[in-house]
Design a protein that fits this description.
Elements (H helix, E strand, L loop, with lengths): L1 E6 L5 H12 L2 E4 L18 H6 L2 E2 L12 H10 L2 H4 L5 E5 L2 H9 L2 E2 L4 H7 L4 H10 L11 H12 L5 E2 L11 E4 L4 H14 L2 H6 L6 H4 L10 H21 L4 E4 L4 H12 L2
Parallel strand pairs: 1-4, 1-7, 2-3, 2-4, 7-8
Antiparallel strand pairs: 5-6
């Protein structure tokens, strides 16, 4: 079965998850949209080599820094690693704070990726030609005020419907599937972690990233001004606030407002033990 130990950044969820994984002989699935990238070990606080020798980790170092890694890429990775099937045969602890990743797994999102080739062809057609395209291909017109953009989107939706992405069934608990650790002292934790990251060589790690993707350029710690420590703290606090807002709406994760690891441990173990 797949369980979720999500949490605000710098809450301590990763270390707690590792302890539980050892205790219960579980694998860990990283649900961190930055930890998928190779070379961002310090920035994303990845588990050490020793930790990865102790526990089977999924979701780490699966994309090159110059790759724009999407949610579709992540879900395809889960399928390649047979995570849906494994969730019916073994216990896996999903750990992280990327809201879209988590929601996509829990709710089994359907995605209809737009085909750039189709869009390029449609952009060359005018309004009357797009109407004619609908008629020739028996595509129902949308029941809204028509314009070129709506007609193009309607055609795209119709043509790529067969290629929509649906994640296979994943075995999760009924009711709460896990917890979200909302650590009340996260701001102080962020300040402490930032100092540790810089002392551990964060600046060199950032400078070693060549041709970073747009996704990585949005990451905390990249593309910053000279006062790197303060900038990281500011950006990380903003991320934390967004995480709190996002997960307050996620009813299948139990929100735990506590600074005590034992409280979070008891809550997630109650779910695991059913």
């Amino acid at each position: 079965m797949l369980y979720f130990l999500a949490g605000i950044t710098a809450s301590g969820k990763s270390n707690l998850a590792h302890k539980i994984a050892i205790e219960r002989n579980m694998s860990i699935l990283s649900i961190d949209s930055m930890a998928v990238y190779k070379g961002l070990d310090i920035l994303t606080a990845k588990p050490t080599d020793v930790m990865q020798a102790q526990v089977q980790y999924y979701g780490l170092d699966i994309a090159d820094p110059d790759q724009n890694f999407s949610i579709i890429d992540y879900l395809n990775y889960l399928i390649e690693e047979e995570i849906p099937e494994k969730s019916f045969n073994e216990d896996i602890l999903a750990v992280g704070g990327s809201g879209l990743y988590i929601k996509s797994i829990i709710d089994k999102y359907e995605f209809r990726p737009a085909d750039p080739a189709i869009r390029s062809e449609l952009e060359q057609l005018n309004y009357d030609q797009l109407i004619k395209f609908h008629n020739l291909n028996n595509i129902p017109l949308p029941n809204t005020e028509l314009n070129k953009r709506r007609l193009m989107r309607n055609i795209e939706s119709f043509m790529v419907d067969e290629s929509k992405f649906v994640l296979p069934d994943i075995n999760t608990p009924d009711g709460h599937v896990g917890v979200f650790w909302n650590h009340p002292d996260y701001k102080n934790n962020i300040d402490i972690r930032t100092k540790e990251m810089i002392n551990n060589g964060l600046i060199n790690e950032i400078n070693n990233i060549k041709n970073p993707s747009k996704t990585i350029l949005q990451a905390i710690g990249l593309n910053l001004s000279e006062d790197i420590e303060e900038n990281i703290n500011i950006k990380t606090r903003r991320l934390a606030k967004k995480q709190i807002t996002w997960f307050k709406k996620e009813e299948r994760l139990k929100m735990i407002n506590s600074s005590k690891e034992d409280v979070v441990y008891q809550s997630i173990m109650e779910i695991i033990d059913g």
